[in-house]
Structure formats: C-alpha cells, structure tokens
Amino acid sequence: MALVVQKFGGTSVGSIERIRAAARRSLAAQRDGNRVVVIVSAMSGETNRLLRLAHEIEVVPDPREMDVIAATGEQVSAALFSLAIKAEGGQARSLLGHQVKILTDGAFTKARIKAIDGSKIFETVDRGEIAVVAGFQGVDERGDITTLGRGGSDTTAVAVAAAIGAGACEIFTDVDGVYTTDPNVCPSARKIARISYEEMLELASLGAKVLQIRSVEIAMKYGVPVHVRSSFSEAPGTWVTGEEKSLEEVVVAGVAYDKNEARVHLVGLEDRPGVVAEFFGTLARQNISVDMIIQTASSGDGSRADVTFTLATTDLARARPLIEETARRVGTREVRYDEDVVKVSIVGLGMRSHAGVAARMFELLAKEGINIQCISTSEIKVSCLVAARYTELAVRALHDGFGLARETR
Ligand code: ASP
Ligand code: MG
C-alpha cells in the first residue's frame, strides 16, 4: 500500500468546518488504498496569538518557553483533526513531535531536524489509522520541546515524507500553486505546473512565501516530489521536482521582487588591500547579511574606490551606526543611503544553456525607461536593483517580455 503524506496549512485547518473538510480529503486518500499520514499547522492566526501572549510579559521572552507556548497551536490542530476523522467514521491518532519522535538540535525557535523515527507512524498507519502529526515541533536531546521556525510545518511534512519513504508530499494551502509572479502585481501571472527544486529555492529566497525554504532544501536533498495545491479545490497545483530535460527548455520560470532591500553607497573608500575585508567583516560579525555588492574604481588619483551594497531594510536601523563607524575607521569620504529600492529577479534553469538572458532583461527594463542601480547573477538567476516606484512596471515588463503570460510548462 502506498504511503501518502498530506500537509494542511493554517487556513486549511482555520475552523472546525475546514478541519472536517480536510479530514474528508484524508479519508478519501485512505479509501483509495493508501496509508495516510497527515501533518497539521496551527489554526490560522493562532501562532501569532500565542507569540503575542509571550511578548506581553517580556519584550524578548525566553526562547525555551516560547517554544513550549508556540507548539501548543499544532497540538490542538492535531487532536481536532483526529477527532474530525473519527466523527466521519474513520480511525486516527494524533502524534506530537516528541511522540513520533522528531529529534532536533537545541536551537529554540529555529531548530533543525536531525532525525525522525518512523516506527510510531508505521505502527499507526499499519493499524489502519490515519497518523495525524503535529507540524512545526520537535524535541531535542534533552527532551525539551523545540520549534522549526515560522512556516516550519512544511519542513515537518517533507522531512516525514523523506523519513518514511513516501512517494510524494502534498502541501494543501490557500493558494492553488506556485505562480510565475505575484498575481497581485501582474494580472497575467499563471500557475506553474512543474518547477525544479533549484528554481523554487531561488524564488522562495526572493520572497515567494508558498513553502518554507528549509522544506525545499530537504525535498531536494532526499528527492521528495512536493505537490503544492489548494485545499479548496480538486485541481492539480504545482509539482516541485528534480530537474527534467523539459524544464530546461524554459529560459525563465518566474519573476520575483523583494522590497526588503536598502542600498548603501560608500563614496571614496580608501583603495588598499584589506579595506573591504575589514568593512564587511565588521558587519558579518554583528550577523548583518549583505546581499549585492559592487565595487568600482573611482575616477581620479586611483587611490579611492566606491562600493555599493544592499542589505535588508529590516536590518538597516541596527546596521547604520556600525556602517558609519566602520566607514570612518577604514577611511571613507561619504556614506549615502537609499531605501526606496526594489530587487527584481528572473529565475530559470534554462539560463544555463541559453545565452543573452541577462542582456534581454536589461533591454526590457531599458525599454520602460527603468534605470538599473545594481546587478547580481547566479547560475539560474539575474537580479537588478531599481527604484521602488518601478516595481509593478518592472515585474510586468519582465514577466510578459519573457513570455510567461502564455503556457510554457
Ligand atoms: N504554525 C507555525 C507558523 O505559523 C508553523 C506553520 O504553520 O507552518 O509559523
Ligand atoms: Mg506556511
């Protein structure tokens, strides 16, 4: 009998009525002759509510206690889901992270899974019950409850699917799949039928929030096909899978944008060995991640250079005093900031085998009169930093310019 893993996100278990509907879906999969394992999130809004309670007591609450609190959201969903299956005439059993056992490291609020023991799950499904596993939570070596970071139930689902050798992992959510770009910004955005793990990782790190990044990494590592689909319809969603020849034929699979970027311009930095190492080393030691970096020799005597880099807007307040101080120390004429920027990116496996993709991107932006401030590339991605007021224009021009408005895969 095949093993099926179904994960239901917060909105899919957001009310008793929805839990009943999801439970019927799991029962249907069981009736089709499968052994079914369900992973549940907390009911929508619940994790936020729980974390707020903790923050009412302390601004920075003890992370160990935070996890004890946050894990209750999924505990409630798992038991309600199990009850709903029984109410429909089926058999089910809820399993918490420590009961399964989902062993993690001890990094509270952002723990990583080290091992999953499949035996409790197998015992359960082999008795004919549906195993309903609480997502997001695990247990560390000391027996303390841990959680996997926001959106972590996706990771539980994919890791469980890998551990028990399920053929695929279904992620039921409130959207019907992964889109070629944000439909709120670009009306011609389409659902993608198939996308590779690599492309999905790039899109997720650029802000496409459908799957937790860690879950895609695990899916890629263990080769678990992931099917992202709507819990409100029967229509197929998006398959996230390994590379296939046909995926390479499409040059650009998706367009992403990230408004959480701020640009810092160091004017007239001393041009000698060790300066940028010292500058960025100081930021790194304070855990401030930098994204794009450009260095140009400034005109004139040749002993000065300009460096432009970007970092998350959400880190800027914290980074600013450090940037000012380090700039002074290493010798910089002036520091300028610009928060009104957006990073637009194109992602696609086909870029590896097609030339001129970046040039085409620059041309499409130029045609709209959009000036490019910074560029960065990877094997399957090109990103351009542009003024934030051009977000929609840039995304639409790239999306339609690369032919994504029509069916490609
Ligand atoms: N409930 C957790 C969160 O909201 C985990 C999840 O839903 O994936 O982050
Ligand atoms: Mg989620």
Describe this structure in words.
- With 409 residues, this protein is an alpha/beta fold.
- It contains 13 helices and 20 strands.
- It folds into 2 domains: 3-174, Carbamate kinase, CATH 3.40.1160; 245-409, VC0802-like (2-Layer Sandwich).
- The chain has helices at residues 16-31, 46-57, 63-87, 97-100, 119-126, 153-164, 197-205, 213-222, 245-248, 275-285, 313-330, 357-367, 391-401, and strands at residues 3-8, 35-40, 92-95, 102-104, 113-116, 130-134, 137-139, 145-147, 169-173, 194-196, 226-230, 238-241, 254-258, 262-270, 290-297, 304-311, 332-338, 341-347, 374-378, 381-387.
- It is globular, with a radius of gyration of 24 Å.
- Residues 9, 151, 154 line the site of magnesium ion.
- Aspartic acid binds next to helix 6.
Anisotropy-based shape: globular
Strand order of the largest sheet: 3-6-2-1-9-11-12-10
Domain count: 2
Beta-strand content estimate: 25-35%
Q: Could you tell me how far the N terminus lies from the C terminus, measured between alpha carbons in angstroms? A: 31 Å
User: What radius of gyration results from the CA coordinates?
Assistant: 24 Å
What CATH architecture of the largest domain do you see?
A: 3-Layer(aba) Sandwich
The counted number of beta strands is 20
Mean pLDDT: 95
**Uncertain segments:** none
Question: Total helix count?
Answer: 13
Largest sheet: 8 strands, mixed
Fourth CATH level, the homologous superfamily of the largest domain: Acetylglutamate kinase-like
Look at the helices and sheets and give the structural class: alpha/beta
**Small-molecule binders:** aspartic acid, magnesium ion
| Name of the CATH first level of the largest domain | Alpha Beta
In helices, the fraction of residues equals: 25-40%
* CATH fold type of the largest domain: Carbamate kinase
